[in-house]
Specification:
Order of helices and strands: EEEHEHHHEEEHHHEHEEHEE
Radius of gyration: 19 Å
Structural class: alpha+beta
Number of helices: 9
Bound molecules: cytidine-5'-monophosphate
């Protein structure tokens, strides 16, 4: 029997733009992605059971093929053509259904861990390709760091690291259906788009303020009005606490603020935590960066 423990980092969208609908029903995306040190803990136990099994510390999460971690293990087994006997235990820290990539990141950690244990020698890029069938954000979560994501989300270009900063994440207590939000975006002409090119230039220049001021997510504009108001009020609270910029991540509802200084970030975290249980203080992580 052997055990592997891995960290599965959350992701944020520094920008999110939808460029249109694709013939396969998915949408063409342009997103600047960032891993953060807020992470689930994934433990892989080998030799304790036959086949693939998943358990989590949250009773309401599925333990079968509906869990992306299970799908990832099945995709790995099919690709390497050898039986996988693993029990995946997931200790959730990343909020669930929050736009912060928790399920995708758990799946990515399973792919990395199985590759390590079975010594299959797949490169990170090959693992990322394997993750495409599991979910659109899984390839990014395999590679992590700061990256531009195009296509469905799987066409990845590594970018210079986001300069060191502090991030406060705050998830309001409602959930949003991803397909419904995409439908809502199809139904309107999007009024604003993020300045993705400006963000790429700011990253090249190591200009944290330039990144933060340009962060934007087109889904903020298609939320139902009461939801949009709550997202706006969290953004305003973060900005009034000194965030350089604030934005919703993915299909939401998590909102995050980017801070240059720890003290201001800590104050924002404390004041929002009094209102929202799922509030986190975190830092950039991934791609060769030591998690803080
Ligand atoms: O690929 P994934 O399973 O994460 O996608 C979930 C849903 O999000 C899809 O069924 C689709 O409705 C929507 N989606 C999309 N375009 C993308 C990614 C996701 O329309 N690029």
């Amino acid at each position: 029997m052997s055990t592997l423990t891995l960290s599965a980092c959350a992701k944020l969208n520094l920008t999110l733009d939808v460029a249109g609908r694709r013939p396969d029903g998915y949408h063409e995306m342009r997103m600047v992605m960032q891993s953060v040190s807020l992470a689930d803990e994934i433990t892989l136990d080998f030799g304790t059971s036959q086949g693939i099994s998943v358990r989590t510390n949250l009773g309401f999460l599925p333990n079968d093929r509906r869990n992306l971690a299970w799908s990832a293990a099945a995709a790995f087994e099919a690709a390497v053509k050898q039986p996988v006997n693993v029990t995946v235990s997931i200790r959730k820290q990343i909020p669930v259904c929050a736009g912060t990539g928790g399920g995708s990141s758990d799946a990515a950690a399973v792919l990395r861990g199985l590759n390590q244990h079975y010594q299959t020698g797949l490169t990170p890029l090959e693992l990322a390709r394997l993750g495409e069938a599991v979910g659109s954000d899984v390839p990014y979560c395999v590679l992590g760091g700061t990256a531009l994501a195009g296509g469905r989300g799987e066409v990845l270009t590594p970018l210079p690291d986001l300069p060191d900063c502090w991030l406060v994440l705050c998830k309001p207590a409602f959930s949003i259906s991803t397909p419904e939000l995409f439908h809502a975006a199809d139904a309107v002409r999007l009024r604003c788009h993020p300045d993705t090119t400006g963000v790429l230039q700011a990253l090249e220049a190591g200009d944290l303020t330039g990144v933060a001021r340009r962060m934007y997510n087109v889904f903020e504009d298609v939320l139902p009005i009461s939801r949009a108001n709550e997202v706006q009020s969290i953004k305003s609270a973060l900005l009034s606490c000194g965030a350089l910029g604030a934005c919703m991540s993915g299909t939401g509802p998590t909102v995050f603020g980017l801070f240059a200084e720890e003290e201001a970030a800590r104050k924002a975290w404390q004041s929002l935590r009094a209102l929202y249980q799922d509030t986190f203080l975190t830092r950039p992580a991934g791609s060769g960066r030591t998690p803080k």
